[in-house]
Amino acid sequence: MRNLVCALALLAAAPAAAEDWKFSSSVNYDTGKYGGTTRVDTVYIPFTLKRYFLNTDLSATLPYLRQSSTGQITRVGGKPARAAAGAASSGGSAEGGLGDILLRGTYLVKRDGPGSFDFSLGGRIKLPTADEKKGLGTGEMDQGAGFEFGKALNERWTLLAEGYYTIIGDPAGADYNNQLALSLGFYKPLRRDLGLTVLYETSSALLDGGADPRTLSAALVKGGSGGLEYTVSLALGLSEGSPQYGLGAGFGRKF
Asked: How many CB atoms lie within 10 A of CB 198?
């Protein structure tokens, strides 16, 4: 862990050219019972700083999290997942505060070209900065690795696929399953400054006997002046382990 932090610091200190950095943030709301008996409402607001290199990118995400029915839902890779069995507290309480910090990195192994494709290897670490006593996190570190794939089928359609395996940290008194997460979808440009991404996402449940989360999501990204881009998204749950639906809106800017 110490070596990783040192590597991130050294890379961040390297000379930056124009648009080597990107800052982004969004407001995300999701709601559902996640296979339980009580509805859980969550607001998740991540602030992400990303640094681009020739074939590598690194990012750090500092999120604010607020959720009702505390202690039932955690975040794995930024996605909500049920992390406690049984009914949630019935008092309608809500807790908010700093969420778990996420560190991500990808390395481009193969770049798309005529008849070729993009293929990247990635790694993720969740730092347990959320207050587990408030039910905002597990209080343990998660570590994951996987791949990201993109293939331009033609000028109008790009196939997208992603797979990550995450080792979930077990707090005292809990035994969570490690998680395999997969996604498959496409990107389609609608016009010069507007694009649509649609993804089917599935992952294994953290608890034995729980339903595997499965969602269908769509995101519109619109480019603006000065390197700005704006995003709106909608997610629909396809299983009891998923939120019933989720909404998001955000922005990003390269500099």
From this structure: 14
Using alpha carbons, select from 32, 37, 75 the residue that is nearest to residue 206: 75
Find the distance separating the first CA and the last CA of the chain, reported in whole Å.
29
Which residues does 84 contact at the CB level (< 8 Å), separation at least 6?
71, 72, 135, 174, 207
Q: Return averaged pLDDT per consecutive 10 residues of the chain, 255 residues in all.
A: 50 57 97 88 97 96 90 82 64 84 96 79 97 90 97 93 96 92 97 95 94 97 92 97 96 95
9 within a domain of the structure (yes/no):
no
User: Are the CB atoms for 95 and 69 separated by under 8 Å?
Assistant: no
Closest CA to 149 of 177, 176, 174, 116: 116
The residue segments making up the domain with residue 90 are 19-254
Query: Do the domain assignments include residue 5?
Result: no
Residues 6+ apart with CB under 8 A from 191: none
CB atoms within 10 A of CB 47: 13
Within 10 A of 65 (CB to CB), how many other CB atoms are there? 26
Q: Rounded distance, CA 229 to CA 251, Å?
A: 6
